[in-house]
Amino acid sequence: MNTVERIAALGQRIWYDNISRDLLGSGRLKALVAAGVRGVTTNPTIFEKAVRDSSQYDDDLRRLREAGTDPGTWVRALMVADVRQAADILRPVYDRSLGEDGYVSIEVDPHKAYDTDATIAEAALLWREVARPNVMIKIPGTPPGLAAVRQTVRAGINVNVTLLFSPSRYDEAANAYLAALDDRLKDGQTIDRVASVASVFVSRVDTEVDALLKARIQTAPTAEAKRLQGLMGRAGSANAQRIYQRYKDIFRSKGFARLRARGARPQWPLWASTSTKDPALSPVWYIDRLIAPDTINTVPPVTFDALTTHGRPRALLEAELPQAQGILDSLRREGIDIGGILDQLAVRGVEAFTASFESLAQQLAAKQAALAQA
To answer: How many Cβ atoms are within 10 Å of 53's Cβ, its own excluded?
Structure first.
C-alpha cells in the first residue's frame, strides 16, 4: 500500500492540482490514477504555466486562429480540451465509485466572479462543452458567485466552490449547496447524482500571518518571541480545522439526513493551496494536519512528490481540533486580525486568477502571431 492509498484508508482522497498536455499525453496522469489519485483540479494560473512551458498547444492555436475567434474563446477551448481528456482518464474511477470520485475541475472566467448571471451562463456553457458527467465547474465563493452556485447546482451541474477562506463564507457555500438540493426536489428532480466540493485555501493564510509574526519577533523580548514563534505555520491549518468542524455540524446533522435519505451527497471540504511556502516546515506540513474522513486534499506536483516518500501519514486533523480555536484566539490576542486577513485573501485570490487569465490570453495572442509568421 502506497502513501496515497494509506491516506485513502484514513478517509481522505488525494487529488492532483495540475494539468498539462504532457501530463495527459505521456501517460503520467494514468499512472497517478493507478497509484490512487482520485481527481484533478485546475485554475487559470495552472493553465497559464502549462501553455507557457509547452509547444503542444500550437496546432490547436493554428486551428483557433483560422476560426477567427478571440483570445478569451481560445482560453476556454484549450481548457475544455484538456479537462475533457483528463475526465476520460478518470472516468473509470467515477464509474466504479458510483460518482463519489473521479472528478476534474474547470474554472469559470474569473472576470465574472462578481456577476451572478454571467457566472451561471458560463458554468452552463462549460458543462455543455466538456460534456462529461465527472466534471466540476469551479465558481469563486464571492457573494454573487454563491448565488450562481445555487442556481448551477439546481440545474444539475456539479460545482467546486473555490477561493473559500473564512468559516462564515464556507457556511454560505454549504448553505447554497443545500438550498440547491431542496430546489431540485421542489422541481421534481433527483439529487443523487449531483456533486459539490468546497475548496478551502490553506497555506496562503500562513503566508500572510507569518509575515506579521516575523516582523514582531524581530523586536520582541525573548519570552514573547518564543511565544510568537510557536504560532508560526499554524493559522492556516487551524482555520481549516475549524471549518472541518463546521462541515461535521452541517453534514452530519439531522437536517442533512433528510436529504441524504433522498440520495444527496455531502459537500466535502477540499483543502487547496497545500504546498509548504516556509522552508522551515516539512514539505508535507499540510498533509498530516488536514487528514480526516470526508475530506479531499488537492496536492501540487512538488508536494505530491514529497508525499510519495512520506511513509506513515497521520490523521491529525480531528486530534488537533481542540487546539485550533486556541491558536486563532492567541493570534487575535497578539493583535492579528484573522477575519480581516481571510476576507482580503478572498478578494486577492479572485484578482490573482483574473490576472492569470488575462496573461494566458495575452500569451495565446502572442503565440498566434508568432505561428502566423512562421
So the answer is: 10
Q: Residue 148's CB: how many other CB atoms inside 10 A?
A: 28
The H-or-E segment that residue 191 falls in is: none
pLDDT 10s digits, 149-208: 999 999 999 999 999 999 999 999 999 999 999 999 999 999 999 999 999 999 999 999
Q: Smallest Cα–Cα separation from 342: which of 155, 144, 113, 163?
A: 163
Of the candidates 49, 112, 138, 277, the residue annotated as catalytic is 138
pTM flag (> 0.85): yes
DSSP, res 273: -
* Cell numbers found for residue 305: 512528490
Residue 97: inside a domain, yes or no?
yes
Read off the amino acid at residue 140.
Answer: P
**Annotation marks residue 138 as catalytic:** yes
Cα 271 to the chain's mean position, in Å? 7
Total tally of structural domains belonging to the chain:
1
The answer to whether position 209 is within a domain reads no
361 belongs to a structural domain: yes
